[in-house]
Design goal:
alpha+beta; Muramoyl-pentapeptide Carboxypeptidase, domain 2; 7 helices; globular; binds zinc ion
């Protein structure tokens, strides 16, 4: 929270904040572990140009190739289980784009530039057409049960905001690989707890 407030004042926003660290192969990004302005992930692919077993809110959504391949396997398996209608709404977001999002958002509603997981190209947002929240749909329940089998975690669970710094986001999934995702699924740990940072 201190970092969040300090960041509102502009130029000195990353003063005193630890640089981003890779833990093994898992990248941790949050308010206190930020990406540089020039960080762009390798091998971004446009999802719309790939085979996709999901709908998309835009034809301009990008993720790293590995993340795309894992999510396609996941949504293809969902389809096989008659679980349809997923709509991917967001993927990679550049530092500059996050600056715009942050500037246009109410205080506390968006992460600061460098602190958004969307800059990693490893995270996406998904929803379905529903009059209730995504969290009350069977598609959400399926993801909660199976996402880890494809290497994804729900990054910002309910009741973990004190640890992640972000309140419940049922729509936001992050690729960490099958082993790590499975261990977090079993223990109920957030990425911060899993990494110990
Ligand atoms: Zn998100």
């Amino acid at each position: 929270m201190v970092a969040l407030l300090a960041g509102s004042f502009g130029l000195g926003w990353h003063f005193g904040v630890e640089s981003t660290r890779f833990h093994g192969k898992i990248l941790l990004v949050n308010e206190s572990h930020r990406l540089d302005a020039n960080y762009v992930p390798d091998e971004l692919v446009n999802l719309y140009q790939q085979r996709h077993s999901f709908r998309m809110a835009s034809s301009e959504i990008y993720l790293t190739r590995q993340t795309y391949e894992a999510m396609e396997r996941m949504f293809h398996a969902a389809e096989e289980a008659d679980m349809n209608g997923y709509i991917v709404t967001s993927g990679y977001r550049s530092y500059q784009r996050q600056q715009e999002v942050y500037a246009q958002s109410e205080p506390g509603k968006a992460q600061q530039p460098g602190a958004s997981e969307h800059q990693t190209g490893l995270a996406f947002d998904v929803t379905v057409e529903t009059n209730d929240g995504f969290e009350s749909t069977p598609q959400y329940a399926w993801l909660m049960q199976h996402a880890h089998e494809y290497g994804f975690i729900q990054r910002y669970p309910a009741n973990k905001a004190d640890i992640t710094g972000i309140s419940y986001e049922p729509w936001h999934y992050r690729y960490v690989g099958v082993d790590a995702a499975t261990r977090m699924h079993q223990t109920g740990q957030t990425l911060e707890e899993f990494i110990g940072g």
